[in-house]
Design goal:
Blueprint (H helix, E strand, L loop, with lengths): L1 E6 L3 E8 L6 E4 L5 E6 L4 H10 L1 H17 L6 H30 L5 E5 L6 E3 L4 E5 L7 H13 L8 H10 L4 H9 L5
Parallel strand pairs: 2-4, 5-7
Antiparallel strand pairs: 1-2, 3-4, 6-7
Helix pairs in contact: 3-4
């Protein structure tokens, strides 16, 4: 069930009470839109109390996202965007299969299938069947961050979650630099 709530300081907040939610969580979109998700068993008042506790964090997140948006280059025209995506797709098809092959061999972790998509929401993902999907926008990252994203997804072939065991495996395979690499990756946006 989704509804709109108007917070006195934050403005409009989308409330989403779903069976899929396991806990109360807040997401702030790049546009500054706020979504409060919570499980069906949680009363709305409790979720709104959580929202109130996180109001300062939401404000800071909105400011950070606004600064990031301001630093982005101007939008490309549709035909320029299409040409750029095709250029990235060609580069990704030439680079990513060999890169995942080398990293798979080096780590001993195998994926069943690789697909390259124009995903703008994630750098990569791994399905329960160990099919890895990589965003062609990985080609906008430095090579060491491309490798980090691929190692991250390869580790999902062992642990299909973000548990401590998963993070320990990633950290071991990137020489103890998982947190630093993740922090560096967060400075980049898919565009």
């Amino acid at each position: 069930m989704t509804s709109l709530y108007v917070h006195p300081r934050l403005g409009e907040v989308t409330l989403s009470q779903t069976v899929r939610a396991r806990r109360i969580s807040i997401s702030v979109r790049a546009t500054g839109a706020v979504r409060l998700s919570f499980p069906c068993g949680v009363p709305q008042k409790r979720a709104l109390d959580f929202l109130e506790q996180k109001a300062e964090w939401i404000g800071a997140a909105r400011e950070r996202l606004a600064r990031k948006r301001a630093s982005l280059p101007p939008q490309l025209l549709p035909e320029e965007r299409k040409a750029r995506i095709e250029e990235l797709r060609r580069a990704a098809k030439a680079d990513l299969p060999g890169r995942i092959g080398r990293l798979s061999e080096a780590t001993g972790l195998k994926c069943e299938k690789l697909s390259i998509r124009a995903s703008r929401t994630k750098w990569g993902s791994c399905s329960g069947c160990n099919h890895i999907s990589l965003s062609l926008f990985l080609m906008t990252l430095p090579e060491h961050l491309r490798d980090y994203v691929i190692v991250h997804e390869l580790c999902h072939t062992v642990h299909h979650d973000h548990s401590p065991r998963f993070h320990a495996l990633v950290d071991r395979l990137v020489g103890g630099r998982e947190k630093a690499l993740n922090r560096e990756l967060r400075a980049f946006t898919i565009r």
